[in-house]
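User: I'm curious whether this sequence folds into something compact or stays loose and floppy. Could you predict its structure so I can see for myself?
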Amino acid sequence: MLPTPCKPLVHRCSQPAAAVDTVGAASRRRRHRPLCVASSPISASAAAQRRRADAVARMPPLAHREVMLALAGEAEAALGARLLPSEVPADVAEFRNAAGNALGSVDVRRGVPGSSIDFTLEAWFHRQLPGGGAIDISSLIFFLNGATDAPHFLMELIQGGPTSLVVLLDLFPRRDLPLHPDYIARYYEATGVDTHRRSLERLPQVRPYVSPSLLVRSLWSPTAVVVDVQCGEGRAAALEEIVRGQVATSAKEVLCVWLEHSATAVEMSDAERESMVARDKMISTTSVELNLSANLPRMFDADVSARVVAEIGKAFLGH
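Assistant: Here's the prediction. I'll summarize afterward.
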């Protein structure tokens, strides 16, 4: 039986997040102020959304994909006018390998000028394995720019079978936490996000997931959900219950915390801002090199992987 879902955090998730003004002259004293009110939301290009929906629909139905699609839709609706329409080409919005046993879809949207949004990324991958079974990966990444020091949002679900799932969910810190205890207090303690890590780790089917990369492990926040769910042979229904229950609840509430703080400008000195943005860029480069460039060719043909990594690199690396 699942534990009682955590009480919802106090937030305004149901209301569209505001667009932002470019941060003015910075001061050494850090202050927070609301950002300008958004106009009516604009949607991504209908063609790109249709391609993405069609590609995901051609993948085997999975509870974790349904949860991620709902989360992506909620984020897109809330961000509204802070996002530009998708410009992802058709052969990245939907792609497959020559053998026909792997299918993927990627969508990237940039933030409008003056917004605190750098970019949003959705990625959906399905690959049938030679010995039977499949691996399915769904990712949502929302990166902010120098208008705020609020954390990035990251969620990734990796399913290697009907009864196993790796869950990665974090408000990705943008400052070195030991040097900024006020950052921990503001974004992690005051928001109560650690509740979700504790709730999931209490489940008997859950054990910690340990990344093979020491660098990757060093980047997570102390409240990150980084777990491996193993329900045991023949217990696919148990995994689905956990995904639709505690995983979905925690993901939605962490997203709501991120949406609330992502629309708050933070004044800081030029040096602080430059240092933070440089740190973001280093992490982005690491993500592309260690994760996508290394792993995508294992799922797709080399030419397909190169095309998709290049498109994602435009978002992460600003190419």
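Summary: The first strand starts at residue 32 and ends at 34. Residues 1-12, 14-44 have pLDDT under 50 and may be disordered.
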